[in-house]
Design a protein that fits this description.
The complex is a heterodimer of chains A (about 350) and B (about 120). Chain A is mainly alpha-helical and about 350 residues long. Chain A is about 70% helix and about 0% strand. Chain A contains 13 helices and no strands. Chain A is globular. The two termini of chain A are about 35 Å apart. Chain B is flat, with a radius of gyration of 25 Å. The chains are: A mainly alpha (about 350), B mainly alpha (about 120). Chains A and B meet through helix 2, helix 4, helix 5, helix 6 and helix 10 of A and helix 1, helix 2, helix 3 and helix 4 of B.
């Protein structure tokens, strides 16, 4: 299908110079990733409201369209017609630029995501490094938003948020080092290929502590419950985006949900075998690889919503203590364990 | 080789464009009726008093400084973890020594209370 479209484009429009065709083709592929992603983000918000609704013994949104299925679209339309307020004391260019710095990296990280063995837009060697670099960029959006708003709540929220994100990024980075030690490659596709052969070969089993640390860090990185003090309504109203309204707020909102799906997809790739089937034999291998990837990502994404419905919010000092005093030591110890198992036991590379 | 990175450049551009497009739609469709009260910083109904860019806790700086040290450490660990096969036992123990020094520093910070938030 992809090949057929490629050939069709290049043969039908061969009177254009080649770089135009290559550019157009790349653009179409990117749109084929971004458009479904946007729909997924929209319906992820719907899933969140529905799920939390059911978990709290109520129905959730059910008025707009059948069973509330048009709710996300109605929300988007509503936000489009809401006034964009730019506070008089704010730094206007930074104020409008901050949402862009949030959404840009959240989307661009999908460029290197291997959806199946062959379905990847840019199969680069340093793809994991690229993803890590881009997800760290998100903190600029937050801190610039908080500073440019020139409002106390926004400023406090941004400071808290930034300190929390960078703290958990260390634990996340160490967890990734563990994965790299076992997989021996920064290429996401090769990391998944190294986990071939059934669910007991996936890295969640030999690297279980790192898997847990990585996911907890992921939840903290995206500022989600139970680590959402940055936007704790009861203390600092909404945190860094308190001054944002209308579509500028919507962009922050989209970035947050896109980041959640991104973390879920990365957890799938690094620890849950990406597109690999649960078992390496017949009824399981018939299901196309993409559905395995999407299904696992959806399961991990579900955890985000489950956490939000279940856990009470952490206090800020508890968050910092968990990050620095528990998660970082755990990852350091497990890196040493991997090294020792690698060099001093007959297991060699685990998994 | 570099051709593989070309789609990424376009993708970053598209990512930013999505943001610009959304904000542009908002600016174009939404009403714009500013007044003094609406544009003042949000402060739970009070008149805003003193500047929002006030002093804040030095601990945020401390966390940022600690972050730089540990993030650099991770940047060192990444290439090491990939070539673990080739650097072998010597490489492994060299990194254990390096990490050991940093862990001593980490314990020192911990004992000094740099990680406490009260």
């Amino acid at each position: 299908m992809v090949d057929w479209l490629h050939n069709w484009l290049f043969s039908t429009f061969d009177f254009f110079p080649e770089w135009v065709l290559v550019f157009t083709w790349t653009l179409w592929k990117i749109i084929a990733i971004v458009a479904p992603l946007m729909v997924a983000v929209a319906y992820f918000t719907y899933a969140e409201r529905k799920l939390i609704g059911y978990m709290q013994d109520r129905v959730g949104p059910n008025r707009v369209g059948p069973k509330g299925w048009l709710q996300p679209i109605a929300d988007a339309v509503k936000l489009m017609f809401k006034e964009i307020i730019i506070p008089s004391k704010s730094n206007k260019y930074l104020f409008l630029g901050a949402p862009l710095l949030s959404i840009g990296p959240a989307l661009a990280a999908w460029a290197v995501m291997p959806f199946t063995d062959t379905l990847v837009l840019a199969n680069i060697d340093a793809s994991l490094l690229f993803v890590l670099a881009l997800t760290s960029m998100g903190v600029y959006g937050i801190i610039i938003a908080g500073w440019a708003s020139n409002s106390k709540y926004a400023f406090l929220g941004a400071m808290r948020s930034a300190a929390q994100i960078i703290s958990y990024e260390i634990a996340m980075g160490f967890a990734l080092v563990g994965v790299l030690m076992v997989a021996g490659s920064l290429n996401l596709r090769e990391i998944v290929l190294a986990q071939a052969g059934g669910f007991w070969h996936w890295y969640w089993l030999p690297l279980f502590p790192l898997f847990v640390v990585y996911f907890i860090s992921g939840v903290a990185e995206t500022n989600r419950a139970p680590f959402d003090v940055a936007e704790g309504e009861s203390e600092i109203v909404a945190g860094f985006h308190v001054e944002y309204s209308g579509m500028t707020f919507a962009v922050f909102f989209l970035a947050e949900y896109a980041n959640m799906i991104l973390i879920a997809a990365l957890t799938t790739l690094l620890f849950l075998g990406g597109w690999q089937p649960l078992f390496d034999f017949a009824p399981f291998t018939i299901i196309p690889a993409f559905f395995w990837f999407a299904g696992k990502t959806a399961c991990v994404a579900f955890l985000f919503l489950w956490f939000r419905a279940t856990f009470p919010r952490y206090r800020y000092d508890q968050i910092m203590r968990l990050g620095w005093k528990i998660l970082i030591p755990v990852t350091l110890v497990w890196i040493a364990v991997i090294g020792i198992v690698r060099f001093y036991t007959p297991f060699g590379f685990m998994g | 080789m570099l051709a593989n990175y070309f789609p990424i450049l376009i993708f970053i551009g598209i990512g930013l464009f999505v943001g610009v497009a959304f904000i542009g739609i908002g600016l174009a469709l939404a009403p714009n009726r500013p007044d003094d009260q609406k544009l003042s910083p949000y402060e739970c109904g009070f008149e805003a008093f003193e500047d929002a860019r006030s002093k804040f806790d030095v601990r945020f700086y401390l966390v940022a400084i600690l972050f730089i040290i540990f993030d650099l450490e991770i940047a060192f660990l990444f290439p090491w973890a990939i070539v673990l096969d080739e650097v072998g036992l010597f490489g492994f123990w060299a990194m254990v020594l390096f990490l050991g020094v940093l862990v001593i520093g980490f314990i020192y910070e911990w004992m000094n209370g740099a990680l406490e938030w009260d």
